[in-house]
Design a protein that fits this description.
Elements (H helix, E strand, L loop, with lengths): L11 H19 L2 H19 L1 H7 L3 H7 L9 E12 L5 E11 L5 E2 L2 E8 L4 E8 L4 E2 L4 E9 L5 E8 L6
Antiparallel strand pairs: 1-2, 2-7, 3-6, 4-5, 4-8
Length: about 170
């Protein structure tokens, strides 16, 4: 047994048939605007990427090389490492422990997240004997401010004669 539905409402048939026509008219109106919207979005992206080079390079470290390749180098970071000292101290178990201290200085005009520091133990010829990354005591380095770091290495390698500390590569953060 088949079932058929009838509408007794006046104009029901004409409203149902006009809905697809209105949808087609709206699509026809919007279709030429799609390339304009895509172009505007792409232009906004390019302007952001060019105008915020330091931010983009901090988020995507490989971007700094791309910027440099097209003649738009990214300004050097305002963070530096100063007052580095390495000394042997007696560890809790009585064995020698290498203690390394220093400061991260922000010479910029904006606060910056405290970076990791890369610590290398060097031999007499300057060859790296051991390396690791460490975190500063603060989460952020204020504009014009500094943050201390203190790290230690239990049982430093034989032949160690100095330490070198740099800001760790952004890719290791």
């Amino acid at each position: 047994i088949g079932v058929e539905a009838y509408s007794h409402a006046p104009g029901a048939a004409s409203a149902a048939s006009s809905a697809p026509a209105a949808s087609r008219a709206r699509a026809a109106f919007l279709r030429p605007l799609a390339p304009i919207a895509a172009t505007a979005a792409a232009l906004a992206f390019v302007m952001l990427a060019l105008g915020q080079r330091p931010l983009v390079a901090a988020l995507v470290p490989a971007a700094a090389k791309v910027y440099a390749a097209i003649g738009l180098p990214v300004a050097a970071p305002a963070l530096s490492i100063v007052d580095v000292h390495g000394r042997l101290v007696d560890g809790a178990d009585g064995r020698p422990t290498l203690a390394v201290t220093g400061r991260i200085v922000n010479s910029g005009t904006r606060a910056s997240p405290a970076p990791k520091v890369a610590v290398k133990v060097l031999g007499a010829g300057g060859e790296p004997l051991y390396a690791w990354d460490a975190t500063a005591s603060a989460r952020e380095v204020a504009a014009g401010g500094d943050a201390d770091f203190r790290v230690s290495l239990a049982v430093p390698p034989a032949g160690a004669s100095s330490v070198a500390v740099t800001i760790a590569d952004a890719g290791t953060r």
